[in-house]
Protein: Amidophosphoribosyltransferase
Amino acid sequence: MDNFEKVTTGLGEECGVFGAYDMDGGDVAPTVYYGLFALQHRGQESCGIAVTDTCGERKMRSKKGLGLVNEVFDEEALHALHGNLGVGHVRYSTAGGSRAENAMPLVINYVKGVLAIAHNGNLTNAVELRHELEHTGAIFQTTIDSEVIAYHIARERLQAPNVEGAVKNAMKKIRGAYALVVISPRKMIGARDPFGLKPLCIGKRDNTYILASESCALAAVDAEFVRDVEPGEIVSITKDGISSDKSMAIDPARHARCIFEYIYFARMDSTLDGVNVYHARITAGRALAQSYPVEADLVVGVPDSGLVAARGYSEQSGIPVGMAFHKNSYVGRTFIKPKQSERESSVRIKLNVIPEVVRGKRIVMVDDSIVRGTTCANIIRMLKKAGATEVHVRISSPPFLYPCYFGTDVPSNEQLIAHSHTTEQIREMIGADSLGYMEIEKLKDMVGELGYCDACFTGNYPMEVPGRDVSLAFE
Structure:
């Protein structure tokens, strides 16, 4: 592998978690598999499933590996995962790098038994917690902060009366963004950080209860949406049903859901905290058309998250919307290419322009973000080479100015093109005829009354982050 490098275009995904508990005793591995399939957009680096049988021996079976869900699991592997309680995970590395041992779920054997944990998010105090644990003899097998959470849950369980109590005590120590699904031999527990940065919802199919990052994963396994796990809530699912602990909840005025779930991460058929993602993106596109009108012949969206915003722009402006790109669905977001190749080739592998659609036309191109600018510049070049006379770029997020500490792979300031260049300079660098970013004050129209985090645009972090003096989350 020495002659190759990993190339990531644009933003990194978050991770996806999925848990299922069949009260009737049926095997849940196939359900978890299809749930993860529906969450594949949240991470294509590694995946895993762990299961246990609540009616039999207290044994945890698991399989995980690098690659897509259908690459890691086949029918034989799923058949071997016998158990009616299970948790699965798809991963994109935001902290820890891509190594096989960093794949989740993490299975922990400890004095009280066994736990499996899947985590979406990033801790802001993981480094100090890790050092603290190491100085008391902890030995880490991975480089991910999820293991820090697992250790704390295991340690707290020694004093706590039950696993949910241990999760609650661990939550008092960890800071940052997290949606957790934890399974013990008899329970499935879901927990969400008090700010609600990461999504988590509850579903039900017959006598099977489900926890999932997004509602689209519930639909994929024919389950009904029950409700969202609330920010700061811990739900415990046992053979007796669901119980809830909201003692870690904070004032809803301080809630800070990741706005990028609505702009980019979530699938367009998901609903998060009562806000439909499709509707949020239509609203974003409409806002762009109001803020940056232009005379043009066709509006096109860059797949996938730009497509719905493009439709919103079209509805507001009256300019027809069209499909200008063919996307190769069989290429993951991160893939291998020779070092000496141009970055442009990696864009062409994923995306091709349909010349018949754009030839001789003035194009409005809608995309979700500009990170480094290289991908956007290459797409504009492709459009113009295919015969587009003008390309007006509209971005359904404000400019990235600050790094994210909560699990979104927004790189350091130096790599953010908007950090050191004006909008006009960026327009010139990417070769667009005009450029308009979403106005920060219009973000709230996408999510209504929900509190959200826009720190990557404003620098207003909802809690203390490394190197920044912000009021502590838990005082």
Notes: The chain has two domains: 4-255, 275-450.
